[in-house]
Design a protein that fits this description.
alpha/beta; 10 helices
């Protein structure tokens, strides 16, 4: 029940899940975001179900350790706080939270050493009011009211993601660690090389706009934070393009000379 960060991750309780494929998809969603404790209440086709493992695409550990129960109350054993996920309005006087708000509360509870859980209803009928009454809050996903139906794995993945965001520092780096950025002398050399070739190609037109065009090019290139290898590669590209242009000009000159003869 412990996530990769060391905190007590919420248990996922599925009440009366109908299809093994959906249970497997839930396990996959759990594994993506560091949840592992899966509890099943009266799965329609019993347990285990081979199709669940096929649908999990390798996320086997929540399925391998999954436990079954005869009631929602039984599945809550050992937990101190469980939130019910449902889109239906209820007459119960319970706090109604978004997945983000719920994740923050569950993370705070976990930090205090509490064992927590999220309760999800079956695909067809959702949760019974009597089972929601066993919970301490309701989690409602803010979907478009014109179509508020989510499949089981979608509901789990949204809540699991929000939990993960309370544990992780943020998104992973955009790029793998690599060479440091090139020094400014190398970048200035790239600017001069590119601008000289653009000048030769007649790019800076009209002439009075050259200064602003050069500034825009330098700003765009500077934001990229190229490393030394990338600077050398770009300068090689510029050289190749300029040589290609030179060969084209030579060919045109020869063709004109032939016509004149």
């Amino acid at each position: 029940m412990t996530s990769g960060s060391g905190s007590l991750a919420p248990v996922v309780i599925l009440d009366a899940p109908q299809l093994g494929e959906n249970i497997g998809a839930v396990a996959r969603s759990m594994a993506n975001f560091g949840l592992s404790d899966l509890r099943l209440v009266n799965p329609r086709h019993g347990w285990p179900q081979e199709r669940a493992w096929a649908a999990a695409s390798g996320a086997d550990w929540p399925l391998n350790a999954a436990r079954t129960y005869d009631s929602v109350a039984g599945a809550m054993a050992g937990l101190t706080r469980v939130y019910a996920t449902t889109a239906r309005p209820r007459e119960l006087h319970l706090p109604v939270l978004t997945p983000r708000e719920a994740a923050a509360e569950l993370a705070a509870a976990a930090a205090r050493g509490e064992a927590t859980g999220l309760l999800f209803g079956g695909e067809r009928a959702g949760l019974e009011t009597a089972d929601v009454a066993l919970c301490q809050a309701v989690v409602t996903i803010p979907v478009d009211p014109r179509f508020h139906s989510l499949n089981l794995a979608q509901a789990v993945v949204l809540n699991a993601y929000e939990w993960r965001m309370t544990q992780a520092a943020g998104a992973p780096p955009r790029f793998r660690p690599g060479q440091p950025p090139a020094d400014l002398a190398a970048m200035h050399g790239l600017y001069a090389h590119l601008e000289a070739e653009l000048e030769a190609a007649g790019f800076f037109h009209p002439p009075e706009k050259k200064a602003s065009m050069v500034q825009n090019l330098r700003a765009a290139l500077g934001k990229a934070m190229f490393n030394d290898q990338e600077v050398r590669t770009l300068r090689g590209v510029i050289t190749a393009l300029s040589r290609g242009r030179g060969r084209v000009l030579e060919k045109l000159a020869r063709q004109r000379a032939t016509k004149e003869d």
